[in-house]
Predict the 3D structure of the following.
Amino acid sequence: MRKYSTIIAILFVISIAVIAYAGHDHMVIPYEKQGFGTATSMPIPAGGDLRQHIIGQEPYKNWKMWPGKDKMFKGAEPHGSLLTVFVNDNALSSIKKMKGMSNNSIIVKENYAPNKNLVAITVMYKVKGYNPEAGDWFWAKYGPDWEVLAEGKVKGCLGCHTSAKSNDFIFTGKVTK
Ligand code: HEC
């Protein structure tokens, strides 16, 4: 009898542990606490991961701006009146080569209101095989506090950017010949 109650007690403890574990959110390891080897890896196509990459691992503020575009240049609607567009190294070399954007290109656009308040951040990230029908772009929109407002194969973004399909869905400058 004692044997059974011991077994039952052990099973009980295990099941509590399993339930507790399953109910837990996946742990997010802050960048500073991550091990080596992650600093140059590309994020998965997800709003949170991409955000961690562009403000943590590879801060976009250190990137180059779109060639020939100044800080807070005047853009068209809907993105806001003043825009600053940053490109990572992959994107920058693609822009220079004029053969479309390479995989792992990231473009980060800060959207400012006329009074220079940051309104949103919109991002395009090219992920091999992510969406072959539409240039493999992953789309993301963040609020001024970096909350994810939209992510994925976002219909709204595609609806407009598809008109620039022959230029790899890009409006800011020519990236194809
Ligand atoms: C109604 C049209 C329209 C919609 C909708 C739209 N965009 Fe754009 N986007 C533009 C235009 C036009 C530009 C060029 C910059 C400018 O002058 O505004 C641009 C530029 C960009 C750029 C800079 C690189 C490039 O393509 O030129 C990014 C990044 C971007 N948009 C992301 C997004 C995301 C993410 C969404 C959806 C949340 C989105 N856009 C929705 C019109 C649109």
In short: The mean pLDDT is 89. The pocket of heme C is lined by residues 75-76, 78-79, 83, 85, 107, 109, 122-124, 139-141, 150, 154, 156-157, 159-161, 170-172 (CB under 6 Å). Residues 135 and 168 are 6 Å apart (CA to CA). The chain has one domain: 31-167.
